UniProtKB/TrEMBL annotation:
The gene is xth. This is Exodeoxyribonuclease III. Its EC number is 3.1.11.2. It comes from Qipengyuania citrea. Belongs to the DNA repair enzymes AP/ExoA family. Keywords: Hydrolase, Magnesium, Metal-binding.
Length: 261
């Protein structure tokens, strides 16, 4: 069973690349972030045609998450964490979707970026992480095999970025952001990519600006956190780096974990 995460950065703009990746790698479950479409604009028929069933939580112009499963319907458990956006009266942003697929709880998230730092957007990022931790503790208490995955917008350690100095002022690697991420690990969740790449140097994002991709100036912000039940079943985890280099690609690339049945 392969479970994957892919911040697609606009599902309509990247649909050809997304379908290529799905058909070439065939993950059992594919979690998408930044679909950037209202619910009615989600191209479910395109995925149905290649064998994937989907549920999604959309929002106009930005955010949005979706869960695709090969040949089976994801059973939705929860959407949203019950936390409003940073603007007064904004309501909740489309950033969280949870479902069961083949006996595994899939928790797909697009965590707030938090820039500029300091400010209300950074405060919202930290509050959102607190809400997420509340939910993951509830899931932990259920003792179900679970994976919490997606774009966390957190660079966990210095080894996860091409230049610490270049990103020193960014919300993605502030001590508060890193501390909140570390709390998930202290709760017992396993960072799949880091566990199998302990020396770091693995990137999941390269900016479109300043030739970041060509110069390999990237960092790791897309993560897969496994419950103990799934960590024991992990056989491999990796990053599909080559897809970042394709024409009209997302600025992220897919990450995945393989599990024994």
């Amino acid at each position: 069973m392969r479970i994957a995460s892919f911040n697609i950065n606009g599902i309509k703009a990247r649909l050809p690349r997304l379908k290529e990746w799905l058909e070439e790698t065939r993950p059992t479950v594919a979690c998408l972030q930044e679909i950037k479409t209202m619910d009615e604009g989600f191209p479910a028929d395109e995925f149905e045609a290649i064998g994937y069933k989907a549920i999604w939580h959309g929002q106009k112009g930005f955010n949005g998450v979706a869960i695709l499963a090969d040949s089976v319907e994801p059973k939705e458990i929860q959407r949203g964490l019950g936390i409003d956006g940073p603007k007064e009266g904004e309501g909740e942003q489309a950033r969280y979707l949870e479902a069961d697929v083949n006996g595994v709880r899939i928790c797909n998230l697009y965590l707030p970026n938090g820039n500029p730092h300091p400010g209300p957007k950074f405060d919202y990022k930290l509050a959102w992480m607190e809400k997420l931790r509340e939910r993951t503790r509830q899931i932990w208490d259920e003792e179900v095999p679970a994976v919490v995955l997606g774009d966390f917008n957190v660079i966990p350690e210095d080894k996860d970025v091409w230049s610490v100095r270049a990103m020193a002022d960014d919300a993605l690697m502030q001590p508060e952001s890193r501390d909140h991420y570390a709390r998930f690990l202290s709760d017992g969740w396993t960072d799949a990519i880091d566990t199998l790449n302990p020396r770091g140097g693995v990137w999941t994002f390269w900016d479109y600006q300043a030739g970041a991709w060509q110069r390999d100036h990237g960092f790791r912000i897309d993560h897969l956190l496994l419950s103990p039940e799934l960590a024991d079943r992990m056989t491999a985890a990796g990053v599909d780096k080559a897809y970042r280099g394709r024409e009209k690609s997302s600025d992220h690339t897919p990450v995945w974990v393989d599990l024994r049945d």
